[in-house]
């Protein structure tokens, strides 16, 4: 089991959703990986803290009476109002259906084949020439046969008068000025190889990721304070001054203990100063920093991503191409997330009253 898979099981394990086999594999991985073991301990601490704050909340006076009154008022609504809403919904569905049918009818002409002209060759074979603009004279139609300029043509797939199978004895297409000696290839006259391009689709361009060491660092600080509201304001001020983003994980008050848990994400260059400032807010109960090396996972995922992009550009079936594109984008998103994590430092600040 990889670290990424193990961390994905943290939440299901806390909720008791893992099977015995999954729990055993998860336990073995925690025994082998100190980083995941430390992260799992933090998850357990946060879960215990949140569960400890569970307290029954009494309904305010008059709540039941007000709720019953509102229910009785809703039951007195006249039935024709519901019929009117149903009729409006049916009319909207009819308008959408009519619009879809009209759009489909107008769009059919775009799928009609382009006009094709048939020419009789000197040896009796028929040739088909694409002519998307029948009113415009095509270049090269008035040239003499021996002028050295060959009209781009393609052989007709159906040749009832010829004994040759389709695709055989086709004339090579030649470029102007070469005397008809060299056939034109898709890469002729181009400075380099072009990306694989499908009919009707653009090539998928892979995003470039630097091949560098990647480590994700996180710090957890648990502090007890006397004035939690004042400490919260100071912590948020420190985070703002260092350019950190703030996420509130928990903010609880059960009448006995007040507790708030923040997640700060800050640039690695500002992390040390922010950790030092937060440590001065009260009595530090615990503080630990863990570093997870993502280099191997990143390199392996990057290889999968590059191979997937190549499969996308080589796919001919539209459905297969769409499926491969979705998989490539998922890998690209994972790489982007890891890239951001390795550039930043995550700080979990746990504040609670003494």
Automatic annotation (TrEMBL):
Ordered alphabetically, the record's keywords are: Membrane, Transmembrane, Transmembrane helix
Q: Which Pfam families match?
A: DUF4349, zf-HC2
Q: Where are the transmembrane segments?
A: 86-105
Region (Disordered) residue spans: 120-200
Task: Give start and end of each Putative zinc-finger domain.
Answer: 3-37
- The DUF4349 domain sits at 219-341
The similarity annotation says: Belongs to the zinc-associated anti-sigma factor (ZAS) superfamily. Anti-sigma-W factor family.
Name of the protein in its database record: Anti-sigma-W factor RsiW
**Originating organism:** Moorella mulderi DSM 14980
């Amino acid at each position: 089991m990889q670290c990424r898979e193990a961390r994905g099981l943290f939440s299901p394990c806390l909720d008791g959703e893992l099977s015995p086999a999954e729990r055993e594999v998860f336990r073995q991985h925690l025994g082998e990986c100190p980083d995941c073991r430390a992260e799992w301990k933090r998850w357990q601490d946060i879960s215990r803290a949140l569960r400890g704050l569970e307290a029954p909340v009494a309904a305010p006076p008059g709540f039941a009476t007000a709720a019953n009154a509102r229910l009785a008022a809703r039951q007195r609504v006249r039935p024709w109002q519901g019929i009117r809403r149903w009729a409006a919904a049916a009319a909207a569905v009819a308008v959408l259906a009519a619009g879809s049918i009209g759009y489909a009818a107008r769009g059919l002409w775009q799928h009609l084949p382009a006009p094709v002209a048939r020419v009789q060759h000197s040896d009796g074979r028929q040739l088909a020439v694409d002519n998307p603009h029948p009113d415009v004279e095509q270049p090269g139609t008035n040239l003499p046969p021996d002028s050295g300029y060959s009209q781009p043509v393609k052989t007709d797939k159906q040749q009832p008068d010829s004994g040759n199978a389709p695709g055989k004895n086709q004339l090579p297409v030649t470029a102007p000025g070469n005397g008809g000696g060299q056939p034109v290839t898709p890469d002729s006259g181009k400075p380099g190889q072009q990306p694989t391009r499908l009919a009707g689709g653009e090539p998928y361009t892979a995003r470039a990721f630097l091949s560098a060491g990647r480590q994700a660092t996180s710090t957890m600080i648990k502090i007890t304070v006397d004035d939690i509201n004042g400490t919260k304001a100071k912590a948020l001020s420190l985070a703002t001054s260092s350019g950190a983003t703030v996420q509130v994980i928990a903010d609880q008050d059960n009448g006995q203990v007040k507790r708030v848990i923040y997640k700060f994400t800050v640039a690695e260059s500002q992390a040390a100063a922010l950790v030092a400032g937060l440590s001065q807010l009260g009595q530090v109960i615990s503080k630990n920093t863990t570093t997870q090396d993502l280099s191997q996972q990143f390199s392996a995922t990057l290889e999968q991503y590059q191979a997937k992009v190549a499969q996308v550009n080589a796919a001919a079936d539209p459905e297969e191409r769409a499926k491969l594109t979705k998989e490539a984008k998922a890998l690209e998103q994972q790489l982007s997330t890891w890239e951001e994590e390795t550039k930043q430092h995550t700080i979990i600040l746990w504040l609670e009253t003494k």
